[in-house]
Design goal:
Structural class: mainly alpha
Oligomer: single chain
Shape: globular
Order of helices and strands: HEEH
Number of helices: 2
Length: 120
């Protein structure tokens, strides 16, 4: 692991509605729909929202910030990711980059994405 999993970390110096570019690239074709769904969930105080692309549940940065620790699973809206810990241009965790099929978007049917099923 990268040593950050489960450890209390300071929040990244960016608004909660702005994901790190390694988690949601600026050129993602669904970026605007994803950000709109995330913003609506943040405004409502919801823990997450259904991903516009996959329909899976994605946790909001607000929920993850309230949890108080980084789970290290590559959550799309991780409020703790700020720098590139591995020096390879990717600020995602050891679980790999966030993608349609990565840890932040894929979950077993009925299970929340973004590591929420881990009970962290």
């Amino acid at each position: 692991m990268d040593g950050e999993r489960g450890r209390r970390l300071p929040l990244a110096p960016r608004p909660l509605d702005q994901p790190h570019p390694s988690r949601l690239p600026p050129d993602d074709p669904d970026r605007e729909r994803i950000l709109a769904a995330h913003s609506a969930a943040l405004a409502a105080g919801d823990a997450g929202y259904p991903d516009p692309r996959t329909g899976l549940f994605v946790l909001t940065a607000g929920f993850l910030a309230r949890r108080g620790t980084c789970c290290g699973r590559g959550c799309r809206h991780c409020p703790y990711v700020d720098t590139d810990p591995h020096g390879d241009g990717d600020a995602s965790s050891d679980f790999g980059p966030s993608s349609d099929f990565g840890p932040s978007d894929a979950a077993a049917p009925g299970a929340p994405a973004d590591g929420a099923a881990s009970g962290g």
